[in-house]
């Protein structure tokens, strides 16, 4: 069974990633890792929001 997507947790993780990327102490290798993870989170958020929008359109 697939785990339910947690939009709020994804947004919080994206905010944490942004802070880490902005930190001058963060190495380039880590930034690459954070960018890949943020792409996964953004894709999940977009899919979640699309699903919510479709449910709302059905309810109208």
User: Alpha-carbon distance between the termini?
Assistant: 30 Å
Beta content: under 5%
Count of alpha and pi helical runs: 2
Helix and strand run = HH
Range of helix content: over 70%
What count of structural domains?
1
Q: What is the number of beta strands?
A: 0
| Gyration radius over CA | 15 Å
Mean pLDDT: 94
Structural class: mainly alpha
Sheet bearing the most strands, described?
none
Uncertain segments: none
Shape: elongated
Topology (SSEs and partners):
Elements: H1 7-22, H2 28-59
Relevant terms:
60 residues, mainly alpha
What does this structure look like?
- With 60 residues, the chain is mainly alpha-helical.
- It has one domain (7-59).
- Helix content is 80%, strand content 0%.
- The protein is built from two helices and no strands.
- It has helices at residues 7-22, 28-59.
- Helix 1 (7-22) packs antiparallel against helix 2 (28-59).
- The mean pLDDT is 94.
